[in-house]
Amino acid sequence: MSEAQVPQPMMAEIxxxxxxxxxxxxxxxxxxxxxxxxxxxxxNRGPAITITFETAEGLVAGKTRVKTLEVDIGFVKDVRLxxxxxxxxIQLDQQVADMLTEDANFWVVKPRIGSGGISGxxxxxxxxxxxxxxxxSSVLSTTYTGLEQEPITGFGVPGTRLDLVSEQGNSLSxxxxxxxxxxxxxxxxxxxxxxxxxxxxxQIFVKSPYSELLTENTYFWNSSGVDFNATTQGIKVNVGSxxxxxxxxxxxxxxxxxxxxxxxxxxxxxxxxPDADSVYERRQYQAKEFIVMFEDSIRGLDVGxxxxxxxxxxxxxxxxxxxxxxxxxxxNEQRIPVLIKFEPARLGLPDxxxxxxxxxxxxxxxxEQGLRATLxxxxxxxxxxxxxxxxxxxxxxxxxxxxxxxxVMPSMAGxxxxxxxxxxxxLDKFSSMPIEVTVDxxxxxxxxxxxxxxxxxxxxxxxxxxxxxxxxxxxPESVNKTLSQLSKTLESYNHQAPVYGELEQxxxxxxxxMRDIQPLIKxxxxxxxALIFKGQVDEDPQxxxx
Length: 546
What we know:
With 546 residues, this protein is an alpha+beta fold. Helix content is 29%, strand content 29%.
């Protein structure tokens, strides 16, 4: 093969071009998507807020979510210490930006067991989260103080909130029910202690429409769930709901002796009475004040004790204080002053000043007629006393007197003092008796009685010996024999026996003899000497002629 026939090798044709490879489209596309996501996230990013809590319990950075109405709206970015608490930085969605008002509320939802019930059980599986509830204000904010526990009443629920004041701090707990005639109409939301006045303030919430039951004459008292009352009509036991039995609660109503009145004033606090009876016993009325000067000991008489007239309460003991006795201690006065209030409203009169003025005039007249105040025992078990008003027969007229700025109501020694005085009189008489002489006489009487008993015992012993003697034992047999012989003798006097015939004939002869001797006996009766001197025979009387 010639060189011309040898095939020449193919040469590669190299061409150059400036197009970008399609492979590079993938990273460019990813970069574009990421940039768009960053820009979109930045543009649509919601507000960042901070919430202060006392502890970080239930808060985990990057994990704990923020929810409202069970919708996820954000998360906890960071949790840091700040002062005596913690501060949580929260990132929220843009959709809630307009809801972050200054009165919005946040709290950590976690399992809780309290008097208000059991809550947050769902977080046992999903974990704790922060609940967000928008407020009603128009002012926005980014800084909040979180609630330490879930609110008892949901936000936005219509109703009425009231402030109750009590002297006892252990009477109620947060979450306990508010009752109206046994029906639950609200809850106790909050309790605070007033250090300056040393009283407890409770905030209660009554749901609508039950809040319309609250009027100016509404009274509140602590209900333990079981009301035990023993009266002259029997024993009464009222049992409330199971929840009120366990934890208690607040009950409110209008007393039966008051009208309903207008709507309640929510601006002022209202008294929380310890029980239902205290509403009637400790209720504040317009009253006329008097000072009663007692000669007896006032031990057992407390502030708030009743003032009664023959069992009907007409007032209250207002004050038993050392300030009332300062002048007494500095003088020779031996009586103790006690301030009492006479309350006309308890007698059915209107609770007005005109009633007080009217009753004052009557009391002045009543004291002139013998009305007096005395101390009487209210309970033998507790030793408590009360002031009793009644009429007494007096030897002297009442002298009007005053103590400081109060009029003085006259008083008398109470029944206890009278009993004590009588006991002392009896003891004095007993001590003045000739006890030694009496004891000697009693000893002599006992000695004489003792000797008599000894002689009686000896006589009884002799009688027993006589009864047990053989001769005494034989007496019944001799008596039986004698009776048998007497029976035989009586049988011989039977009318069929010969002796009976002879006896009957003798009696007949005796009777004939007595008839014959009867003229002689008559003559002897007329003339006893007829047997010695013979009497003249009188001529027969002759009839007279015409």
